[in-house]
Backbone:
Protein backbone atom coordinates (compact mmCIF):
# COMPACT_ATOMS: atom_id res chain seq x y z
CA UNK A 1 0.00 0.00 0.00
CA UNK A 2 2.71 2.41 1.08
CA UNK A 3 4.88 1.39 -1.86
CA UNK A 4 1.98 1.99 -4.21
CA UNK A 5 1.45 5.45 -2.80
CA UNK A 6 5.15 6.25 -3.12
CA UNK A 7 5.30 5.21 -6.78
CA UNK A 8 2.13 7.24 -7.53
CA UNK A 9 3.71 10.21 -5.84
CA UNK A 10 6.91 9.81 -7.87
CA UNK A 11 4.96 9.61 -11.07
CA UNK A 12 2.94 12.69 -10.12
CA UNK A 13 6.14 14.61 -9.38
CA UNK A 14 7.60 13.70 -12.78
CA UNK A 15 4.35 14.54 -14.58
CA UNK A 16 3.62 17.84 -12.83
CA UNK A 17 7.13 19.26 -12.34
CA UNK A 18 9.13 17.60 -15.10
CA UNK A 19 11.79 16.88 -12.45
CA UNK A 20 13.02 13.54 -11.20
CA UNK A 21 11.87 12.80 -7.60
CA UNK A 22 15.49 13.17 -6.34
CA UNK A 23 15.87 16.59 -7.96
CA UNK A 24 12.44 17.64 -6.74
CA UNK A 25 13.20 16.81 -3.09
CA UNK A 26 16.65 18.44 -3.29
CA UNK A 27 15.08 21.67 -4.60
CA UNK A 28 12.45 21.48 -1.85
CA UNK A 29 15.12 21.09 0.86
CA UNK A 30 17.10 24.07 -0.50
CA UNK A 31 13.96 26.22 -0.50
CA UNK A 32 13.25 25.34 3.16
CA UNK A 33 16.85 26.11 4.14
CA UNK A 34 16.67 29.49 2.35
CA UNK A 35 13.38 30.34 4.04
CA UNK A 36 14.85 29.52 7.45
CA UNK A 37 17.98 31.65 6.85
CA UNK A 38 16.03 34.65 5.52
CA UNK A 39 13.50 34.64 8.36
CA UNK A 40 16.23 34.42 11.00
CA UNK A 41 18.18 37.26 9.37
CA UNK A 42 15.27 39.66 9.28
CA UNK A 43 13.76 38.54 12.57
CA UNK A 44 10.26 38.58 11.23
CA UNK A 45 8.90 35.80 13.38
CA UNK A 46 8.85 34.64 16.96
CA UNK A 47 10.39 31.20 16.73
CA UNK A 48 13.92 32.14 15.69
CA UNK A 49 14.39 35.41 17.50
CA UNK A 50 13.02 34.88 20.92
CA UNK A 51 14.95 31.84 22.17
CA UNK A 52 16.36 32.67 25.58
CA UNK A 53 15.75 36.37 25.23
CA UNK A 54 11.99 36.49 25.48
CA UNK A 55 12.14 38.25 28.87
CA UNK A 56 14.40 41.01 27.54
CA UNK A 57 12.32 41.21 24.40
CA UNK A 58 9.11 41.61 26.39
CA UNK A 59 10.74 44.21 28.62
CA UNK A 60 11.83 46.22 25.59
CA UNK A 61 8.40 46.05 24.04
CA UNK A 62 6.61 47.33 27.12
CA UNK A 63 5.88 51.06 27.11
CA UNK A 64 8.17 53.03 29.45
CA UNK A 65 6.72 53.95 32.81
CA UNK A 66 7.12 57.63 33.69
CA UNK A 67 10.07 58.28 36.06
CA UNK A 68 9.19 58.11 39.74
CA UNK A 69 11.05 60.05 42.44
CA UNK A 70 12.68 57.62 44.87
CA UNK A 71 14.23 60.28 47.09
CA UNK A 72 17.22 59.39 49.18
CA UNK A 73 18.48 55.79 49.01
CA UNK A 74 21.64 53.99 50.05
CA UNK A 75 24.05 52.49 47.51
CA UNK A 76 22.86 49.07 48.65
CA UNK A 77 19.24 49.97 47.87
CA UNK A 78 20.22 51.44 44.51
CA UNK A 79 21.56 48.03 43.41
CA UNK A 80 18.00 46.78 43.19
CA UNK A 81 17.45 49.11 40.25
CA UNK A 82 20.00 47.43 37.97
CA UNK A 83 17.42 46.30 35.44
CA UNK A 84 17.19 42.69 36.58
CA UNK A 85 13.77 43.33 38.03
CA UNK A 86 11.59 44.47 35.12
CA UNK A 87 9.08 45.89 37.58
CA UNK A 88 11.59 48.46 38.78
CA UNK A 89 13.04 51.39 36.84
CA UNK A 90 16.62 51.23 35.62
CA UNK A 91 18.67 53.72 37.61
CA UNK A 92 22.23 54.97 37.58
CA UNK A 93 23.97 57.68 39.57
CA UNK A 94 26.62 60.28 38.89
CA UNK A 95 28.11 62.28 41.74
CA UNK A 96 25.43 61.04 44.12
CA UNK A 97 22.58 62.14 41.88
CA UNK A 98 20.36 59.30 40.68
CA UNK A 99 18.94 59.32 37.15
CA UNK A 100 16.26 57.15 35.58
CA UNK A 101 17.97 55.61 32.55
CA UNK A 102 15.13 53.18 31.72
CA UNK A 103 14.83 54.73 28.26
CA UNK A 104 18.37 53.50 27.49
CA UNK A 105 17.77 49.90 28.44
CA UNK A 106 19.81 48.82 25.43
CA UNK A 107 22.86 50.46 27.06
CA UNK A 108 22.34 49.73 30.74
CA UNK A 109 19.89 46.81 30.81
CA UNK A 110 21.00 43.21 31.38
CA UNK A 111 23.34 42.17 28.58
CA UNK A 112 23.88 45.78 27.49
CA UNK A 113 27.38 47.19 26.98
CA UNK A 114 27.10 49.42 30.05
CA UNK A 115 25.05 47.09 32.26
CA UNK A 116 27.84 47.17 34.83
CA UNK A 117 26.99 50.81 35.61
CA UNK A 118 23.30 50.08 36.30
CA UNK A 119 22.15 50.37 39.90
CA UNK A 120 25.40 52.06 40.85
CA UNK A 121 27.07 55.41 41.18
CA UNK A 122 29.50 55.05 38.29
CA UNK A 123 31.25 58.40 38.75
CA UNK A 124 34.77 57.08 39.07
CA UNK A 125 34.42 54.65 36.14
CA UNK A 126 33.04 57.38 33.89
CA UNK A 127 35.70 59.88 34.94
CA UNK A 128 38.45 57.38 34.20
CA UNK A 129 36.68 55.81 31.20
CA UNK A 130 37.18 52.51 32.96
CA UNK A 131 35.19 49.32 33.17
CA UNK A 132 37.19 47.95 36.07
CA UNK A 133 35.30 46.64 39.09
CA UNK A 134 37.33 48.79 41.49
CA UNK A 135 36.22 51.94 39.64
CA UNK A 136 32.51 51.17 39.89
CA UNK A 137 32.06 53.58 42.76
CA UNK A 138 30.92 57.08 43.52
CA UNK A 139 34.23 57.82 45.23
CA UNK A 140 35.93 60.41 43.08
CA UNK A 141 38.74 61.27 45.47
CA UNK A 142 42.20 61.60 44.00
CA UNK A 143 41.08 62.14 40.40
CA UNK A 144 43.04 64.46 38.14
CA UNK A 145 41.66 67.60 36.47
CA UNK A 146 41.06 65.90 33.11
CA UNK A 147 39.18 63.07 34.76
CA UNK A 148 37.05 65.51 36.74
CA UNK A 149 36.32 67.42 33.57
CA UNK A 150 35.32 64.21 31.79
CA UNK A 151 33.04 63.39 34.70
CA UNK A 152 31.53 66.86 34.53
CA UNK A 153 30.75 66.31 30.85
CA UNK A 154 29.05 63.01 31.68
CA UNK A 155 27.02 64.77 34.35
CA UNK A 156 25.88 67.44 31.91
CA UNK A 157 24.94 64.72 29.43
CA UNK A 158 22.88 62.88 32.02
CA UNK A 159 21.23 66.07 33.31
CA UNK A 160 20.15 66.88 29.79
CA UNK A 161 19.03 63.40 28.79
CA UNK A 162 17.55 61.77 31.89
CA UNK A 163 15.25 62.69 34.76
CA UNK A 164 16.88 62.95 38.16
CA UNK A 165 14.89 60.80 40.56
CA UNK A 166 16.86 60.87 43.78
CA UNK A 167 20.14 61.10 45.63
CA UNK A 168 22.46 58.61 47.28
CA UNK A 169 22.77 58.56 51.00
CA UNK A 170 26.44 57.76 51.35
CA UNK A 171 29.51 57.94 53.50
CA UNK A 172 31.80 58.07 50.47
CA UNK A 173 33.09 61.59 49.77
CA UNK A 174 31.76 63.00 46.54
CA UNK A 175 33.31 66.44 46.90
CA UNK A 176 35.65 67.50 44.14
CA UNK A 177 39.01 68.05 45.82
CA UNK A 178 39.93 70.76 43.34
CA UNK A 179 36.99 73.06 43.84
CA UNK A 180 37.38 73.18 47.60
CA UNK A 181 41.12 73.70 47.39
CA UNK A 182 41.43 71.22 50.22
CA UNK A 183 42.19 67.51 50.23
CA UNK A 184 39.06 65.41 50.30
CA UNK A 185 37.88 64.06 53.60
CA UNK A 186 36.28 60.74 54.19
CA UNK A 187 33.72 62.05 56.63
CA UNK A 188 30.09 61.10 56.42
CA UNK A 189 28.11 63.20 54.01
CA UNK A 190 24.42 62.62 54.37
CA UNK A 191 22.34 64.34 51.80
CA UNK A 192 19.53 66.52 53.11
CA UNK A 193 16.36 65.13 51.57
CA UNK A 194 14.62 68.49 51.62
CA UNK A 195 17.36 70.04 49.52
CA UNK A 196 19.48 67.36 47.92
CA UNK A 197 21.75 69.81 46.14
CA UNK A 198 22.70 71.71 49.24
CA UNK A 199 25.57 69.43 50.11
CA UNK A 200 27.09 69.92 46.73
CA UNK A 201 27.39 73.66 47.09
CA UNK A 202 31.03 73.57 47.96
CA UNK A 203 31.84 70.98 45.38
CA UNK A 204 29.91 72.79 42.74
CA UNK A 205 31.04 76.28 43.60
CA UNK A 206 32.85 76.38 40.30
CA UNK A 207 29.75 75.33 38.41
CA UNK A 208 27.10 77.78 37.20
CA UNK A 209 24.01 77.82 39.40
CA UNK A 210 21.68 76.61 36.69
CA UNK A 211 23.39 73.22 36.69
CA UNK A 212 21.74 72.16 39.89
CA UNK A 213 18.19 71.53 38.78
CA UNK A 214 15.50 70.79 41.31
CA UNK A 215 13.99 67.37 41.88
CA UNK A 216 10.85 68.13 39.96
CA UNK A 217 12.37 69.29 36.72
CA UNK A 218 11.84 67.13 33.70
CA UNK A 219 14.54 66.05 31.29
CA UNK A 220 13.03 68.32 28.68
CA UNK A 221 13.41 71.37 30.88
CA UNK A 222 16.93 70.40 31.80
CA UNK A 223 18.00 70.01 28.24
CA UNK A 224 17.23 73.69 27.70
CA UNK A 225 19.89 74.75 30.09
CA UNK A 226 22.52 72.07 29.74
CA UNK A 227 25.07 71.47 28.56
CA UNK A 228 25.39 74.12 25.85
CA UNK A 229 24.60 77.15 27.97
CA UNK A 230 26.84 75.91 30.68
CA UNK A 231 29.70 75.35 28.30
CA UNK A 232 29.24 78.85 27.03
CA UNK A 233 29.41 80.13 30.60
CA UNK A 234 32.57 78.21 31.22
CA UNK A 235 34.36 79.86 28.27
C1 LIG B 1 35.95 51.60 22.18
C2 LIG B 1 35.42 52.44 23.04
C3 LIG B 1 34.02 52.89 23.02
C4 LIG B 1 33.14 53.02 21.99
C5 LIG B 1 33.39 52.72 20.52
C6 LIG B 1 31.91 53.52 22.53
C7 LIG B 1 30.78 53.79 21.80
C8 LIG B 1 29.62 54.28 22.29
C9 LIG B 1 28.44 54.62 21.52
C10 LIG B 1 28.32 54.49 20.01
C11 LIG B 1 27.50 55.05 22.36
C12 LIG B 1 26.10 55.49 21.99
C13 LIG B 1 26.05 57.00 21.98
C14 LIG B 1 24.66 57.50 21.82
O1 LIG B 1 23.93 57.00 20.95
O2 LIG B 1 24.27 58.44 22.53
C15 LIG B 1 28.06 55.00 23.68
C16 LIG B 1 27.39 55.37 24.81
C17 LIG B 1 27.94 55.34 26.06
N1 LIG B 1 29.24 55.06 26.38
FE1 LIG B 1 30.63 54.32 25.16
N2 LIG B 1 32.04 53.68 23.86
C18 LIG B 1 33.31 53.31 24.21
C19 LIG B 1 33.87 53.33 25.44
C20 LIG B 1 33.24 53.75 26.58
C21 LIG B 1 33.85 53.79 27.91
C22 LIG B 1 35.31 53.43 28.22
C23 LIG B 1 32.90 54.25 28.75
C24 LIG B 1 32.96 54.48 30.23
C25 LIG B 1 33.71 53.79 31.04
C26 LIG B 1 31.69 54.46 27.97
C27 LIG B 1 30.50 54.88 28.49
C28 LIG B 1 29.37 55.11 27.74
C29 LIG B 1 28.09 55.45 28.33
C30 LIG B 1 27.79 55.64 29.81
C31 LIG B 1 27.20 55.59 27.27
C32 LIG B 1 25.72 55.85 27.35
C33 LIG B 1 25.43 57.33 27.46
C34 LIG B 1 23.94 57.57 27.54
O3 LIG B 1 23.31 57.09 28.48
O4 LIG B 1 23.43 58.25 26.66
N3 LIG B 1 31.95 54.14 26.68
N4 LIG B 1 29.34 54.54 23.61
Residues:
Amino acid sequence: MALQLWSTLKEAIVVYTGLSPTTFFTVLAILFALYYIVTSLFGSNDTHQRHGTSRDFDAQMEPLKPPVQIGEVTEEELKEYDGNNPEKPLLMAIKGQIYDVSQSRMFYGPGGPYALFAGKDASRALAKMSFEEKDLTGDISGLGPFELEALQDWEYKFMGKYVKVGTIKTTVPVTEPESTGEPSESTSRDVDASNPNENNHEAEASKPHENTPSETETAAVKSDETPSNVDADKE
Remarks:
- Residues 21-42 form the longest helix (22 residues).
- Confidence is low (pLDDT under 50) at residues 44-52, 180-235.
- The chain has eleven helices and four strands.
- The CA atoms of residues 12 and 21 lie 9 Å apart.
